[in-house]
Design the sequence.
């Protein structure tokens, strides 16, 4: 029997190496460098902006294996950003990404954010479908992204 996914808060020191490894795997999966997002600094200072009370970071476990992550950080008063949504390829299609997104959106509401923004790529079709199904809509660019396939989205809470 397949174990149920378990979502755990990853801002505590014991989880930081696991979160960092998943973030690195996510970054490597993109096929381009994230230097325009200061990714190396982000990895070095975890949990950084993802720490409570204004931020969140989660790892999802299947049994004892970490298989995905998601994070949230403040952008401006009332607005946060969903970041680093990642589910390992071998376990995609099981609702893990949706569970992570729903958890982070519930937290955004509890914290008191009124809007969640994210950026993705038009080529990430499964992620785009998930975000659209959660109510995200296209939005204006909120930072400078050099990738022509970038897509900006937001959700009013």
Sequence:
């Amino acid at each position: 029997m397949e174990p149920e996914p378990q979502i755990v808060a990853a801002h505590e020191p014991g989880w930081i190496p696991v979160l960092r490894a998943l973030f690195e795997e996510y970054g490597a999966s993109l096929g381009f460098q994230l230097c325009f997002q200061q990714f190396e600094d982000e990895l070095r200072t975890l949990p950084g902006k993802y720490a409570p009370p204004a931020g969140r970071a989660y790892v999802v476990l299947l049994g004892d294996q970490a298989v995905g992550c998601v994070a949230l950080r403040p952008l401006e008063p009332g607005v946060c950003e969903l970041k680093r949504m990642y589910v390992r390829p071998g376990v995609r299609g099981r609702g893990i990404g949706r569970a992570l997104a729903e958890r982070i959106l519930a937290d955004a509401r509890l914290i008191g954010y009124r809007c969640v923004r994210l950026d993705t790529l038009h080529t990430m079709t499964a992620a785009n479908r998930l975000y659209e199904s959660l109510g995200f809509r296209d939005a204006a660019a909120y930072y400078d992204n050099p990738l022509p396939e970038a897509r900006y989205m937001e959700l009013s809470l």
